[in-house]
Amino acid sequence: MKGFDSAPAPRRALGSNILLLAALATCSAWLYLLGADSSTPATSHALPQNYQHILSTCASLHATPSIASSFHDRTESDRYVRGSEATWIRNASIWTGSRDGVVHGDVLLGRGLIKFVGSFNAQQVRDMGFELDKLKIVNANGAWVTPGIVDLHSHMGVDAAPSLRGADDTNSLHGITQPWLRSLDGINTHDMAYELSISGGVTTALIIPGSAGSIGGQGFTLKLRPTAERSPFSKLVEPPFAYNGSGIVPATPLRWRYLKQACGENPHGVYGATRMDSIWALRVAYNEARKVKERQDAYCAKVDAGLWRDVAALGEFPESLQWEALVDVLRGRVKIQTHCYEAVDFDGLVRLTNEFKFPIAAFHHAHEAYLVPDLLKKAYGSTPAIAMFATNARYKREAYRGSEFAPKILAENGIKVVMKSDHPVLNSRFLLYEAQQAHYYGLDADLALAAVTSTPAEILGLDHRLGFIQEGAPYVLIPLFGMFTELGYDADVVVWDSHPLSLGATPTQVYIDGIAQLKDPFANEKPSAFQKVPETPDFGDEAKKAVEYDGLPPLTPTPNVGVVAFTNVGSFNAQAFSAPTTIVVERGQVVCNADCVVPKDVGRVVDLKGGALAPGLVTFGAPLGLVEIDAESSTSDGVVHDVLRGGVPSILGSDPIIRAVDGLQFSGRSALLAYRSGVTHAISAPVSYGFISGLSAAVSLGAAHRLEKGAIAQRIVALHINIERGARESVSTRIAALRRLLLDAEAGGEWFSKAAKGEIPLVVDVANADIMATLLELKHEVDEAVGSKLRLVLARATEAYLLAPALARANVGVILVPSRPYPAVWDMARMLPGPPLTEKSAISVLLEHNVTVGLGIEESWSARNTRFDIAWAALESGPEGISRATAFALASSNLEKLLGVDLPRDIVAYEGGEMFSLSSKPVAVISSSRERVDLF
Ligand SMILES: *[C@@H]1O[C@H](CO)[C@@H](O)[C@H](O)[C@H]1NC(C)=O
Ligand SMILES: *[C@@H]1O[C@H](CO)[C@@H](O)[C@H](O)[C@H]1NC(C)=O
Ligand SMILES: *[C@@H]1O[C@H](CO)[C@@H](O)[C@H](O)[C@H]1NC(C)=O
Description:
By secondary structure, this protein is α/β, with parallel strands linked by helices. The chain has four domains: 71-146 and 475-522, Roll (Urease, subunit C, domain 1), CATH 2.30.40.10; 150-283 and 336-459, Metal-dependent hydrolases (TIM Barrel, Alpha-Beta Barrel), CATH 3.20.20.140; 554-616 and 906-936, Urease, subunit C, domain 1 (Roll), CATH 2.30.40; 618-903, TIM Barrel (Alpha-Beta Barrel), CATH 3.20.20. Strands 21, 22, 23, 24, 25, 26, 37, 38 and 39 form a nine-stranded mixed sheet that branches. Strands 1, 2, 3, 4, 5, 18, 19 and 20 form an eight-stranded mixed sheet that branches. It has an eight-stranded mixed sheet with strand order 6-7-8-11-12-13-14-15. A hairpin with a 2-residue loop joins strand 2 and strand 3. Helix 6 crosses helix 8. Bound molecules: 2-acetamido-2-deoxy-beta-D-glucopyranose (NAG) (3 copies). One 2-acetamido-2-deoxy-beta-D-glucopyranose binds at residues 849-850.
């Protein structure tokens, strides 16, 4: 294929005479049986004692994974848990993943399988051998049901939640190519993430080693549900081998194996391997495997020809425990998952696959894949699928050209699209959100759902049992045998509270192997509009530009300092108009706010198509305006000195508090994307990995440089410090330092003195409730001593809900970062997950106690998703919960109140819908402070 197949295969000698003699001399196991088997060819002179074994080894040498014909007859799953009840889900809207499309009807789950889909009656259920009185009947009331979510890229169980040194098994650091390692050997079955991710509808995940090395090791596919045995092995789906107490037995027929490869920056960073080194390491490894494979092939060629004397001379069947996994790659038995981002890396891997003749199942992350579809199609064998994030990009150089339009563009190029979590990089509980965003940015609805169900199942080679809602065919007559057959998929299904592509869709129940996973789930009623595929904006032009500009389309808005008319405006500041109206703006000021006549001197007319004008949002928590590419220090302000560790340059004097305002940079891509998504301002603190961060600044995300009018909204906002467990010095040391800085004016210097006197907010980044309680006591102590009120704000604040009444009494507000919690570290282990696991989320608990709550983000790329974060928080709280106004306040006025800033009232124009809706797209920012309208 592609010019390589016709090239002669390299020939190598099968062994020198010396080796041959040595082999003969040492093989005492060989027994020469002249003419022992009349079925062997005449050339046969001798048969080794284990010749049957050799024959069967050689007979299966070219076997590739397949499905046993008996699989189609299965009436119960190999994972069926005896005694688990059958379930009849009635009146569901079933997205089947198959040609059947959407079926309105029932699903019967029994013996771990999907038994019926569609219309059936009690008699048919009885005929299948299910007793109605032992059956759980669930009335779905029209709710959406999908196949369980399949995550093609997860480190769950090898990378721990909460992260603990003793459970970090993601990356071996012992070699750049280690195909012999197996994720299975490191999978912790007690991890907190299983339950959390199941509660988001994830039922199956491929657990792969990390990307430190070019070959990180083998992956294994498991179901997330707990098993009675509690072992990693008992969670596996179709493991390639089994063990029984007296041996390891390969599965027959063969099953798929998985291998993790990586290229680009990660091997570079960990092994100091340039891209040249990485590809060379891969070629060396594959060459070793090729040598073993060729020896095996040559050996079996002799066996097949009955040349047993030659076989004897070769000795034992050539095997290598080190390289056998790569030999299996070359034999077409492995689905390779390759972490690879850039055109240059795809090019290297595509050449590698053609040199050694093996296919790659999927490129992962692959932020530049959409720019090079034709290159991907040159991969040996078949075009790799692309497994990606929706909007997580720019965190390192090779992710810099990532585009939210990549799923759409790739699909249009006929390339299979998978959305993956890389858990815990993204919390796989919300993997469906990746599909929702891909759909929002233009991926077809069915492909978006397939991207987290049937497509990953196919890439795993498990689409005969996972990723679809398909029943057996119990009444199909196989003419020849007169038998009934069934091909029921695994009973992994999710019942959703809204259409799965609508924002905030949450499972009301998750079945794995037919077993309901959520005990007493909490479900909120969702608005009826959320029960259908959301309408989404047209991003066709934006997608074209992304390709045209090689992944870096210009993001700078076009300013208009004259007159701009917005027509067809549906609402203004959440006040809906009875009929769409026209609003006129001049130099960024609204000069006519309803039923306006478009003036003659209008510079631009913007049709909002019933959309909205709404105040701009504020982002907090990520270093927007300070960092462009996280992993590239030359693109950022840098990291401040850690005062507790010393080494602060003496030239900074005795009060070395750093100001973010001094390090600001503008026009960054994450900043501009946030701006183009309705986030007009950021409050950013200096980046610190130590105790004191410094003073935050409030900046306009649309400004081109700091000298522009309105670019810096407030030069100094708050004083930021960090207190966490697991730092080099103890929590109590940091508390002691803080006490001294606040109580001893000389030690505290200008800024801690101001904080003590309540002249500037003190923002403490803290996740753990016990530390927060200590801080509340300290605040009391300081307030008493200083005679004023410390304006304490707790950021991150994962466990703050536990102290809600005390926080309210002390008038201490919190900023939850991130808005949807994940127990990344021990300090966060008591996080409140929210529905469906708990009725309330931390946001709603805190708000109910009248604590002022803001929401923040951890990484700059996610600032653009702020409006969805707040909409989600409101949806999650139910119809009686968080109002739209309160949700809006979470990322605007509450942050301003907590941090004591008064930001300019920029107004965002949304086309085609309101701010919280997936149907809308921001098209302009009206800025009175900057005296302009920025058009996108
Ligand atoms: C199915 O549920 C829908 C939505 O609740 C309802 O309108 C319809 O009547 C139900 N159909 C049956 C057969 O129960
Ligand atoms: C386990 O598997 C081995 C290899 O196939 C077989 O020889 C042995 O009989 C099996 N033992 C049991 C207890 O099933
Ligand atoms: C919160 O404030 C509201 C309105 O002021 C009040 O009715 C309610 O009782 C307060 N809740 C708590 C828990 O203090």
